[in-house]
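Q: A reviewer asked whether we had any structural model of the full assembly, not just the individual parts. We don't, so I'm hoping you can provide one. Inputs are below.
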Amino acid sequence: MISHDLSGLSAVCEARAPVDAAYLADASASMGLRGRADAVALPADAAEVAAVMRWCYERDVPVVPRGGGTGYAGGAVPIDGGVVLSLERLTRVRSFDPLLWRIEVEAGVRTATVARLARENGLYFPVDPGAAEQSQIGGNIATNAGGPHTFKYGVMGKWVMGLEAVVPPGELVQVGGPVRKDVAGYDLASLLVGSEGTLGIVTAAWLALMPAPALRIPVAASYGSTAAGCAAIESVLASGVVPAVLEYLDAGAIAASGATFPGGLADDARFLVITESDTGAQDADALAEALGRTALRPDATALWRWREGVSLAVTARRGGKLSEDIAVPLDRMAQAIDEIVAIGARHALEACSWGHAGDGNLHATFLLASPEDLPRAEAAVHELFALAIGLGGTISGEHGVGWLKRGWLGRQWDAPAVRLHQAIKAAIDPKGLLNPGKKTA
Amino acid sequence: MISHDLSGLSAVCEARAPVDAAYLADASASMGLRGRADAVALPADAAEVAAVMRWCYERDVPVVPRGGGTGYAGGAVPIDGGVVLSLERLTRVRSFDPLLWRIEVEAGVRTATVARLARENGLYFPVDPGAAEQSQIGGNIATNAGGPHTFKYGVMGKWVMGLEAVVPPGELVQVGGPVRKDVAGYDLASLLVGSEGTLGIVTAAWLALMPAPALRIPVAASYGSTAAGCAAIESVLASGVVPAVLEYLDAGAIAASGATFPGGLADDARFLVITESDTGAQDADALAEALGRTALRPDATALWRWREGVSLAVTARRGGKLSEDIAVPLDRMAQAIDEIVAIGARHALEACSWGHAGDGNLHATFLLASPEDLPRAEAAVHELFALAIGLGGTISGEHGVGWLKRGWLGRQWDAPAVRLHQAIKAAIDPKGLLNPGKKTA
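A: Here is a predicted structure for the entire assembly that you could use as a starting point for your response.
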């Protein structure tokens, strides 16, 4: 354990030590992950972010950037000292041009704020991760966040037109801007997107927006088995319609949350498929036909409020859970969904999954009744990651590698790709001070 | 001028020397750019691509990858010897799963082939660059190609789910695959997309497809001035509809091509706006209302056949042209369009522009009546690039930097961003043998 003398940091920007516990954990805290930091820096603007990084880089002090703290992979948790750099004071909307479908916001602006500003101006920001009221745009960019509606509209990176970021040893860079197409330089914006704060700290972003769909018509249906439900998903894909979402819940997720499903579910429902047409009634009819005779049309507002509560309902079932976000090719989804339950059973754990079926992105979850279950759940998660890799998928569809999945990229990617990953990290952060230990192979 | 002894290359894969002239130029040949190479390698598969790169890397021989040769920036032109590595024999469609909206193709498969396979199976591949019959998927990826319909659906990179590529010193890597979401490692696929063969050679790609829109309804309208036309474009953006395309032609482009516009144009047309609804008649009506009283509905097939001929018609007007593809923020478009003509006038050249208005992506063009006009046109192009940068735009929206725009990235980006660009190149291609001289700052 290294301790750093950070007494000079407060001359650079507002800083606090000792560090409040809130800055030492993220949404993975239920798994017992709590870090340690020597100070928290609270820069007021991008220039101060650069100054903090310069100060730290000169002194070999680790810098751990922090957004809303809603991550599940421990990406924002300082593992062994250094400075937590919180973006919470960078909350300016720098510019907003609704008629040009674009907005420039600082990293600490909440996801829900962007969504609200868009909505109030007839526009739409489709990235809708689970904790949008708390998560920040900077963190959404650092993890390349998704959500149900990114099935049709693309994850965070697809809405980033330009980024302002601070890179080692403390330089402010701007790549892209209010331009919708740019192939002049390497795509540094996409490289920073999803890099989990290990290559640079995003301080602001130019985001694209789009006109809001006129009407949302959800269509859902339940089935008696995973196989029947996955067949329905394939029918939706073959319907000729691009649904706005294509979600599922398996039997365990229904057991935890189905009782409050808007309009109710059949007692024998073991698999739920949720789609939504945002292109009119005719497409909703086509989706309903693809889903078959059990199709129903829940109210959109009620449906999405209920859907937001699924994760909490699953947690409530036994008191705790360990949830991971693997993704697999669409044709391996039924196999993955059933295998998640089987992995749980092998470790004497109730297991379930739900998520973004159209993207093959599954929130695979092992329920915890007591802290004693945690070691078995961790063993189960290792089997889960091996399963995802074995099916040609990935250990993370939207949460990232963070600290908790460290070491798994090296099993997912072949050696030359891992070497590229590491060469880029070494080229941009030669001292390895940016979010150390995170997103490692 | 360096010459390389490549007598051993033919043991690695099929190779030819001397090099046929067809491999020494691209679509910029009209500007007199013709390169020099010691041999052309024609690998049969990805393993042979890796073997050629290994062979060259060990011997310090430059490697210039080549797709369909339809680029406008000299990106595929070998500047000073070495090996041209043509992907033309990598033409396999490795897998195609229409029901799962995905296809895996080798780099040498033609863009039009992917579009046709998709269409024949009720699907749609929206990337539609100008020379789709000749251009190859690998080249589309290397330049992050666009086209009219990428306004709504996104440029090439947004359709790449995974890449297989050969990177220095000759290793085959795979990043991504048949998975729609993956945040495990850095986004190496996006880094390779648009890198113009300077970081790696793409050998195959997993591409996403989508269901084909049921109906395309183009709506166009002409105006008496740039200002009126650009106001109409803003009305379209405010209409609440996301049009599939949002194109324009200025007065000069209309003078060159308007006579054959399907259905004809008014004599006093000085600006043409073209939109298309692929979401039904109601949205087409809304687009027509936004375009105003001159709105008309040309036949889709005739319109797009005509639109493909615009570039050639402009060339035909004086015999030659020098065309660049700047992009600017949408609110600077009218200014850019008028300034292009003014720049031409200052150099005694007729000038015009057309392109992807919704993306602010302008094909700015100076007409050449004789080779003597070329130096003045080159001076005009330099003013054009300075204009794009001054307006907060980019020197290239879709063609790339190649050889002809070398040095301009350093004027568009600030120094720290350029250093990142160069650090990445040095980290991945330490000998600088991959497409030397291209995409430099």
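A: Points you may want to mention in the reply: Chain A touches chain B through 90 residues (CB under 8 Å). Residues 403 and 437 of chain A are 6 Å apart (CA to CA).
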